[in-house]
Amino acid sequence: MRISSRLFVGPALLAAAVAAAPAIAAPAAAPAVVSVMETSGTLRPGEYLWAADGVPPGKLAIVVDLRRERLYVYRGGVEIGRTLIIYGADHLPTPTGRFPILQKDRDHVSNLYDAPMPYMLRLTWDGVAIHGSGEDVDGRYATHGCIGVPDEFAALIYGQAKMGDVVVVTRDWMPEVYGNEGVQVASAG
After folding, report:
1. Is the Cβ–Cβ distance between 34 and 77 less than 8 Å?
2. How much is the pTM?
3. How does pLDDT run across 43-88, given as a tens digit for each residue?
4. 125 and 158 in contact (C-beta within 8 Å)?
5. Which of 40, 49, 90, 139 has its CA 20 to 30 A from that of 7?
6. d(CA 87, CA 104)
């Protein structure tokens, strides 16, 4: 699914959003964001948005929001991608923090679980990575701490990412901008 609409995020709103990101120790750790994708609906399992055409070259940053179950990709501060994720089960949670991409492997297979991890971007040396997890990526599944995304989306990120690019894993990324997108709210009664 491709979109090309952009929504400008003003400096005051952006500063408030970055300051509100709780899992990030200091605003300097968060990527600078100047515009985000404008969407008309909610992503469904296996769907993603990608609009990199026409976006000038710039530093790549990836943000994983565990609360919204979303991954956002920015190039030069412009959002170029968004998708649903699966992440670590309660007994093997996905860690939060700021991680450089340590390794890339297009055809990686887990040495712990003998599971395919296509388009793997390693975040920690103890096994946490972003990787393709098939096409039906939704909240019914969990990982052993990794961040799973649809295979096609994983290939797109893999093609853009470089060693050392930053991945921020948090639990409430820019709520003033992304609102309640994907947030699960318990029903009363």
Report:
1. yes
2. 0.80
3. 888 899 999 999 999 999 999 999 999 999 999 999 999 999 988 8
4. no
5. 139
6. 19
